[in-house]
Amino acid sequence: MHPSDDIRGSRSGRLSGRKIVMGITGSIAAVECVKLARELIRHGAEVHAVMTEKACEIIGPYSMEFATGNPVVTHLTGKVEHVSMCGDVEGKADLILIAPCTANTLGKMVHGIDDTPVLTFLTTGIGTGIPVMLVPAMHSTMYDHPKVMENLGAALKMGILVIDPRIEEKKAKMASTEIIVEHVLRLLSGGSMRNERVLIVTGATREPVDDMRILTNRASGASGIALGVEAFRNGAEVLLMAGENVVKISEALKVDRFSTTGDLLERIKALPGKWKAPTMAFFAAGISDYSPKRKEGKIPSGKEELIIELGPTPKVIEVFRGLFPEAFLVGYKAESIRDPEKLLERAYERLTAVRMQAIVANDLSDVTPETNTVYLVTPQKEVFKVSGKRSDIASFLLERTMELRGTR
Ligand SMILES: Cc1cc2nc3c(=O)[nH]c(=O)nc-3n(C[C@H](O)[C@H](O)[C@H](O)COP(=O)(O)O)c2cc1C
Predict the structure, then answer these.
(1) Which of 149, 148, 174 is nearest to 26 (CA)?
(2) Cα dist from 77 to 81, 89, 145, 347, 396, whole Å
(3) Which ligand 1 atom is at minimum distance from the Cα of 118?
(4) How far apart are CA 408 and CA 3, in angstroms?
(5) How many A from CA of 30 to the centre of ligand 1?
(6) Residue ranges, CATH 3.40.50.10300, the chain
(7) Rounded-to-integer distance, Cα 189 and Cα 268, Å
(8) Is 97:186 a contact under the CB 8 Å cutoff?
(9) Residue 166 to residue 136: CA distance in whole angstroms
(10) Which ligand 1 atom lies nearest to the CA of residue 142?
(11) 200 forms bridges with which residues in the sheet?
(12) Mean pLDDT to the nearest integer, 258-279
């Protein structure tokens, strides 16, 4: 057994049984390829590396052989490796991922030139209809060359997915491993949410008490972020509206940060462009019901007693319902009562009051940093219970809400 098998599927089984040809070209970003290949393997993929001569001057093929557990193609032989992996044959690749992609390989590919092993895999695979994903990396002056731009446009017209580089330090750097892997997961998933535009509100509001202090809550954003990642992987367009306190957000998600309840409300009222019509919304946030009557400056310390006056905040989800009556709306209800029956009763009341399509109820006593137990309640009073890791809960909730959406 090769050591790469030790990590196969350790993150998920979403790519198991999937064969990915990873074409590596002569960019300095090739140094990231060991990590990238191993992350794909952690989701279950079988990875085969193909390298140009210039890529082999930057990293050694042994690194990729170690990373993937498979022999590396650096030149074509009588085995016709390009045909056996990318021809119209049984067991052909599910994806050709060119990461990093040089300006040179991009230009040659869109013009049908075929003079490196990576290009021969591309010519064969494109002819076969295998999906191709390009991850460009180059100095920004190369990236700004009008012909390079034109070639990227031509690649898009050919139906190739291009993952935008990060523009940093005068370079168009290869997208991060996390972003590439998320796009691979999305491309190779069934795309069950391909037609959905999903708005997720998560994290906690922060209401100022004075210039220094804030009133906030324990919502970490973990459940909403897990939902966002899962929806993205299933092909949805996702906008994550996140409080400032949240745990690490996947780099693949589009994020809009909010601070106070009022700020969140204004952002929802001013949602731009296509977000004026979200098809689904999940309110998985700790939105403060009260906000302090803010004091100017800083309240001095040392008082015997301090009374902070609070006033009610606007009900953001109710305003949302009024603004977007067509959206499939899922609310969240957290209680601390250790009585599932009462919890479900309260959740159902809230669901009907706001005309939600479903509500997720949970008791705070069931929450741990990694796991949770939640109930999905429908307008027909059906209840689905699920416990486990947040990613498993997110995938369950999305599957169920998509089913409900179909039968609404
Ligand atoms: C150290 C080094 C780093 C390079 N980085 C890049 C790069 O990031 N992007 C790029 O387009 N070319 C880069 N080049 C230039 C390419 O290697 C060159 O255009 C080569 O012809 C690409 O061949 P290939 O596309 O067949 O791999 C780099 C060259 C060297 C020596």
Answers:
(1) 174
(2) 7, 18, 35, 65, 47
(3) 26
(4) 49
(5) 10
(6) 197-294+303-407
(7) 30
(8) no
(9) 10
(10) 11
(11) 240, 282
(12) 95
- As a CATH number, domain 197-294+303-407 is 3.40.50.10300
For the cut 90, the answer to whether the pLDDT of residue 289 exceeds it is yes
Ligand 1 pocket: which of 22, 102, 144 to mutate (most atoms <8 Å of CB)? 102
CATH number 3.40.50.1950 is the correct assignment for the domain at 3-188? yes
Rounded percentage of the chain residues whose pLDDT exceeds 90? 91
Q: What mean pLDDT is reported for the chain? A: 95
Average pLDDT over residues 196-225: 95
- B/e letters for 234-268, b = 16+ CB within 10 Å, e = fewer, are bbbbbbbbbbebbeebbebbebbebbbbeebbebb
Residue 31 CA, ligand 1 centroid: distance in Å: 12
Max Cα-Cα span within the chain: 87
Ligand 1 atom 13, closest CA: 27
Percent of the chain exceeding pLDDT 70 equals 100
Question: Where in the chain is CATH 3.40.50.1950?
Answer: 3-188
Structure tokens at 217: 């809550």
In the three-class reduction of DSSP (H, G, I as helix; E, B as strand; rest coil), residue 39 is classed as helix
Distance 80 CA to ligand 1 centre (A): 26
214-232 in b/e form (b: 16+ CB < 10 A) is bbbbebbbbbbbbbbbbbb
> How far, in Å, CA of 61 to CA of 68, rounded?
11
Query: Measured between alpha carbons, how far is 215 from 67 in angstroms, rounded to an integer?
Result: 48
pLDDT at residue 407 in the model = 55
Q: Cα of 392 to ligand 1 centre, how many Å? A: 41
Residues with CB under 6 A from ligand 1: 25-29, 52, 54-55, 58, 102-105, 116, 137-138, 142
Q: Is the pLDDT of residue 229 over 80?
A: yes
Confidence of residue 355 (pLDDT cuts 50, 70, 90): very high
**What pLDDT is attached to residue 306?**
92
Q: Report the atom number in ligand 1 closest to the C-alpha of 25.
A: 27
Going by pLDDT thresholds of 50, 70 and 90, the confidence category of residue 317 is very high
